[in-house]
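Re: weekly structure request thread

Next one in the queue (127 aa):
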Amino acid sequence: MTDKRMLILIAGPYRSGTDGDPQAMAANLAKLEAAAWPVFAAGHLPVIGEWIALPVLRSAGAGPTDPLADEVLYPTAERLLARCDAVLRLPGDSTGADQDVAIARRRGLPVYDDIAQIPHLDRQGDA
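Done, posted below.
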């Protein structure tokens, strides 16, 4: 349990199982983003690696299926994990999300498999 706000990385499939189909990747991102409100409503700050990595890729003239993506997507999540307090691992096969969980566990961070496991903070008096 915690009595402080956490920065929680939401990890799950993004490119996995999509064969590079932009609509499938968008659907996966929507699933990740659907977890953002419950994390926020619990009093914490959600973050998704793709929220940072995708603009970085675009600024390099690349996208999620370009060879550069592996050099941006995975390292972005690893750098974020240096600042995060926990990980919410959503269901689905994902090499990147599995790496996020492994890094979090090595760093001793909590890994939640369900939004219901995330501690809720009292909203009153919470800064």
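The first helix runs from residue 22 to 34. The beta strands are 7-11, 45-47, 86-89, 111-112.
Next request, please.
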